[in-house]
Structures are given as C-alpha cells and as structure tokens.
Amino acid sequence: DMAELLKIKREFEEFQKEYCCRNREAEENREKENQAATQIQSWFRGCKVRAYLSHLHKKAIIIQKIWRGFTARAHVRQMVKAAYFIMKMNFYEEMAVRIQRRWRGFFVRKHIHNFYARKKYMEGLVMKNELVRRELDQLEELQKRERDCLDMVKEHTAKVYQAQRLHHLLSTKQCPGVFNSPFRPAPHEMELLLRQVKYQAPTRLASRGKACLLGIPSSTSSSFPATLGSPLIKTSRTYSSRPILPPIGNKKQQVMMVKTLAIKDINK
Length: 268
Prior knowledge:
The protein is mainly α. About 75% of the residues lie in helices and about 0% in strands.
C-alpha cells in the first residue's frame, strides 16, 4: 500500500509540474492563440454569412423569377384579351359596314335612285327639252321677222322722208329731174317714190309733241311719220313755215346808212 501511495504521490507531483509548465506555456501563447481564434472565428463567421447571403440571394432570385413570370404571364393574358377584343371589334365593324353597304345600296336603288323612274324622268326631260327648243326656235324666227319688218319700215320711212325733202327734184314735162336721167332705160327708184309722195313743208317739232318723237303720227304729219332713225329727229334745228329774215343791224350801221343817203342827196 505504501508503494502505491508513493507512486500516486510521485505521479501527483509530476502532474503538478506538468500542469504548471503547461499553464505557463498557455499564458505565453494566450495572445497568439486568442488572435488566431479570433481570426478563425471571423473567417468562419464570414464564410457562414456569405453562404447565408448566397443562399438568400439564390432564394431571392427564385422568388423574383417566379414573381416576374407570374406578372409577365398576367400581362400577356391581358394583351391577348385586348388583342382578341380588338380583333372581334374589327370583325364586327367590317361585317356591320358590309351589311350597311348592302342595305343602303338596296334602299337607295329602291327608293331614291330608282333606275326606271330615273329613265322615265330623263325621257320626259328630253321631250321637254325638244319642245322648249322648238318654241325657242319659233320665238327666234318671230323676233327675227319682227326685226326685219321694223328695219324695212324704218328704211321705207327714211326713204319717204328723204323723198318729201327732195320733192323739188321731181321731173316735169319740160325738164327731167336729177333721178330721171335720159340715159337710163328706166327711171330711178327715187324718181318713182317722188311721184308717189306729196310735198310737205317742215313744221316745228314742238308742235308735234312727244307723239312724233315716239313715232306716232299726228294730224299735221304725213302718212309716214318721222321715226327715231330719221334725219328729222337727229337734227337739232327747228323748222317753221315763216321765212327766216336777216338780223337787224345795230345803231352804228343805221347811222352810217343815214349819213350815206344824206351825202347822196347833197351831191344830186
């Protein structure tokens, strides 16, 4: 027993020595080991945090991918619905335009622009046009005849008026007139007209009044009154049956005449 006790005591002393040595070594290496442990912990924690962040990043990517896919599919579904709605509306509008075009064409052809009614109207219009053209042609011919007749009357009136003014040139039994030349085989037209009309002295236009200016014959005028185209209307002079006397001289001329007569009497 003593041997075992000594052995245990010896082992205990060795253990104490070993413990002291190791404590001393531990105290000596405490700072290095602390720094090494801190560095290892920081590295480990960094790796752990980076791994966790990588895990979170991957999960966030997955979540974003799923969410973006969901929103994109929803947007595409909305676009498809809108495109389908627009396609249906375009189709309905095109069909409505076709239906309206057919119906309006039928309605217009039936009630507004009826072909047979239009044809009948055009035939009636052609007949009316021909009738109006014939009436206008007749009216034009009538007006032309009236103008020709009026021109003939004016010409005859002018000739009669000229014959009345030149009545003193009428031929007599003793002396042939200007218009009845002996070298002519037949008398001139004016000569025949002079034989038909009678001489009429010119009268004042004022005595005739407005009737003569308008071409209406008066009681003192001839059977062929002067018209607007006759020379009687164009002239500005007035005619009178009384002879035109020379103007009366002034007092100086009368005095000179008296002196001249007195000198002649004295000389006699």
